[in-house]
Amino acid sequence: MGMFDELTYKGHQYQTKDTPAQLLDQYEIRDDGTLWHQEYDARWEENSESLFGGYIRHDNERWVFCYDFDGLIVFYREDKENGGYKEDNWIEHKALFNSGKMIKLDGENL
């Protein structure tokens, strides 16, 4: 196990371990096939009731185009519409990016 990021594609939330952040960050593949990352300024917020005495607070959230991302992103989600969790009940996609633009999805050229 480990950390993952969340990725939105065609209105669905997926998980992935193939994005640069791996800090439970948010990514999005937009309708034009471009990859975007929700960047933020992070600061430690003291909170005595928190497990670690505080938490990381996100300020100044903004969406930034990942123009320099080249590579493969595998992203997956549970297919809740067709029966919930079973080992073979996952939807998975593989998307290849060049300069932040999706050029292949599941082996098909775009």
Supply the key terms:
single chain; 110 residues; mainly beta; nine-stranded mixed beta sheet; 9 strands; 0% helix; globular
Cα radius of gyration in angstroms: 16 Å
- Tally of helical segments: 0
Contiguous uncertain segments of 5+ residues: none
In helices, the fraction of residues equals: under 10%
Strand content: over 45%
Q: Tell me how many strands there are.
A: 9
List the helices and strands and how they pair.
Layout: E1 5-9, E2 12-16, E3 26-29, E4 35-46, E5 54-65, E6 71-78, E7 90-98, E8 101-105, E9 108-109
Description of the structure:
- This protein has 110 residues and is mainly beta.
- Helices cover 0% and strands 56% of the residues.
- It is built from no helices and 9 strands.
- The chain has a 9-stranded mixed sheet, with no helix packed on it.
